[in-house]
Amino acid sequence: MPKDTSIRSVLIIGSGPIIIGQACEFDYSGSQAALSLKDEGIEVSIINSNPATIMTDKVIGDHVYLWPLTVDSIEQILQERKIDAVLPTMGGQTALNLCIEADERGIWEKYGVKVIGVDVAAIEKTENREAFRQLMVDIGVGVAKSKIANSFLEGKEAAQEIGYPLVIRPSYTLGGYGGGFVHKKEEFDQALKRGLEASPTHEVLVEQAVLGWKEYELELLRDSNDNVIIICSIENFDPMGIHTGDSITVAPAMTLSDRCYQDMRNQAIKMMRAIGNFAGGCNVQFSVNPDNDEIIAIEINPRVSRSSALASKATGYPIAKIAAKLAIGYNLDELENQITKTTSAYFEPTLDYVIVKVPRWNFDKFKGANMELGLQMKSVGEVMAIGRTFIEALQKACQSLEIGRAGLGADGKHKRNIDEIMHGLEHASWNRLFLIKDAMSMGVPLESIRKVTRIDKWFLSQIQELVHLETELKRYSLNNIPKDFFFTLKQKGFSDVQIAYLLGNVTEDEVYERRKSLGIRRVYKMVDTCAAEFAAQTPYYYSTFEEENESQPSDRKKIIVLGSGPNRIGQGIEFDYSCVHGLLAAKESGFEAIMVNCNPETVSTDFNMADKLYFEPVFWEHVREIIELEKPEGVIVQLGGQTALKMAEKLHENGIRIIGTSYNDMDVAEDRGRFSDLLKELEIPYPKYGVAENAEEAIVVANEVGYPVLVRPSYVLGGQGMSIVINDEDLEKAVVKLLGDLPGNRVLIDHFLDRAEETESDSICDGEDVHIVGLMEHIEPAGIHSGDSSAVLPPFSLSEKVMNDMEVYSKKIAKALNVIGLLNIQFAVKDEKVYVIEANPRASRTVPFIAKAYDVPYINIAAKVMLGVNKLKDFTIERKLEGYAIKEPVFSFNKFPEVTKELGPEMKSTGEAIRFIRNTEDPYFRQLYKDKSMYLSK
């Protein structure tokens, strides 16, 4: 069926600010869907309150509404603009819940808007736990024993009938919020109360807990002719009992029998057809009894999900893009496969490689948090790795995590306490994968590990093979490793750093040179959706160790953009926004734009965003070999946050050109000691400071600069390890802990300006001129991390003198640091005196906010300046803000009810929203101003 020509204008509902359980995978899907609809000549409007994402950029939608995600906001858009249809399946749970509420209020009917991509009735069937359970029973799909409860008494009766262990699942929540396991009667009352309170409908499902069963997901697409295809099968490495967002997952499924897989496919298709007649995407989760292959359905989501982004990157099949076209009437066989360009979208992808996703946690930001994993999702991001084998992909994923690991173990960071290891295996947390390897290295039998973890034996045997290879390697020295064995090590994902560690007294560079001399080099394979059965047109690559290299460099001038790796607190989607604009600017400037990143949730890793995508760890060994193959004009590190910046020194040492600000100038800004010396030279005020390498030196410095002091390490992002202390005893504890957590780092001790206001400036410098992008005033005082503070643009209560000083200091620092590109500076203002706290010559979390508030493509301009193709005078920059824009941090403390919600110098927010107000008389603004006055007068 051709597309529905009555649909000329579509509203896409976004997912709002990033929270744990709903991250930027929905912005990726929403962006894909918007571009897909625009390809069809459809006018696309987007509502989303997240300023940090590319989804709310003019390059994605025709009309972007950075408004609160409420039904009232939606109605205002429908009054303002003729909307024919709404697509609510790209914005996660937030968008689905809004769609239901708008339907209940009769909004869609009132304005003649068609809901596409899903039936409202289907949302109700899948989100209402009892309706879902009953539907599964009616169509003959197995489900766990369960009962619905809307009250405390009903819940107690259900528990008595089903028996323990139980699982509590609240209706209409995301990321497992409010759910949990109940192993014994004494724990039930509290768990039930929490679940009932978490559900917006005060409803929970009390269900039999199938702990230890295997967990699988299938990603489906269906068209209006009722054709259904399975895009990807995903297997959880971790058994049932851990939220799928916190599980290591593998695609395609590795330990599933063909009979069981076919049965699962049939059940998934039956489930999708049973919930409604819509055309679009669906995610289905199953549990399988490892003893007899009994299958039960866990849930079905009639929308794109976290796994949809993963499946799209895993297969190269753009699920959200195709789902959007199906929603407007196309059938699968009418659409082309986006990668082969010759086959239809009705072809199911076939993989000849393995994908591994590993979540990324930030428990260090939530002191005292319960770190045990369960039904409530706690991870803040994820990495994906591609390899020819499971173990190669797993090691590459470990290298991608940004936690200082060189792979799965073999890097000197192993645990040796057997009691601690065994406890960690039984009580899963962020490091259980590494503890499995540590246990094997200490001789714990594989079967003992299997019984404790309930992880499938096949996965464990793969990890055990690494232990055998390490033992074998220790028999050799670098110069006598047989070539075949060296090749095997690299095929199993061992990094040069790991090999150097295992050999002892050998450097990473020496290992690299030795394998190069043996002719052992990475080759690159194409992600082609069809296991090379058909020729692929899309340059999307991963590395492995084989003979044939499928990535042939062009003779064009190239720019490599290094991505930001996994999302975490302090480094989020704003850096991916920056990377996307860097790619677009490079392409517009005539360069071949090459992306290197490992985050499956993001738009930068969409295969059609760059001219060439390497889905690889942002890890020196991988980056180095891509650079040697492609020979770029230079590498952009300014846009990928701390992940990319950490590469700058290696690039500099190896004579590789860094685009924009030089390594040495960036290092001056990063090294807080050198930076303070520069400020002194420029006669710019800054808090008194000193540098210490141990607790004794720190006490001497603190007494010289005067308490209270701010203690922090050099070279960190998101305020990691920062604390404010008021005496010698607290200082000693803080320094000892900091050096324990970050060995080899120096400690900086600054006099803390108590009750000072905090402000920020963002600017662009081309080496000659400096353009002030924006000045912001914080609501919270200095001492609370800027990422956790509400920021107002432009400032509303700063004097002309203060703002003038901020501008003068910004320009002085930009020129002294020889900045080419972006510069963010944070200030403290006390008694009308402006002090510089820090400067960051890179993209910051505030630039997307300013760009959206002023409606100016600042990153694009900065990238062209960095590339040397333009000067600032080439651009006419007009700001369009009426009134004020406010950046509001958003937190996920509900995931960690046991931790303090007090804010301080270490960042804790997971995302942000933007709010526009006309003037300072706005009631919301008056409350903020009241809060600010209260903070500063304490």
From TrEMBL:
Task: Kindly list any coiled-coil regions of this protein.
Answer: none
A Gene Ontology biological process noted in the UniProt record is: pyrimidine nucleotide biosynthetic process
Question: Taking every annotated instance into account, which residue ranges of this chain make up the domain ATP-grasp?
Answer: 133-328, 676-867
Cofactor(s) this protein cannot do without: Mn(2+)
Molecular function (Gene Ontology), one example? carbamoyl-phosphate synthase (ammonia) activity
Tell me the domain of life. Answer: Bacteria
Catalytic activity annotated for this protein? hydrogencarbonate + L-glutamine + 2 ATP + H2O = carbamoyl phosphate + L-glutamate + 2 ADP + phosphate + 2 H(+); hydrogencarbonate + NH4(+) + 2 ATP = carbamoyl phosphate + 2 ADP + phosphate + 2 H(+)
Q: What does this protein do?
A: Large subunit of the glutamine-dependent carbamoyl phosphate synthetase (CPSase). CPSase catalyzes the formation of carbamoyl phosphate from the ammonia moiety of glutamine, carbonate, and phosphate donated by ATP, constituting the first step of 2 biosynthetic pathways, one leading to arginine and/or urea and the other to pyrimidine nucleotides.
The protein's assembly and partners = Composed of two chains; the small (or glutamine) chain promotes the hydrolysis of glutamine to ammonia, which is used by the large (or ammonia) chain to synthesize carbamoyl phosphate. Tetramer of heterodimers (alpha,beta)4.
Q: What is this protein called?
A: Carbamoyl-phosphate synthase large subunit
According to its UniProt entry, this protein's organism is Pedobacter africanus
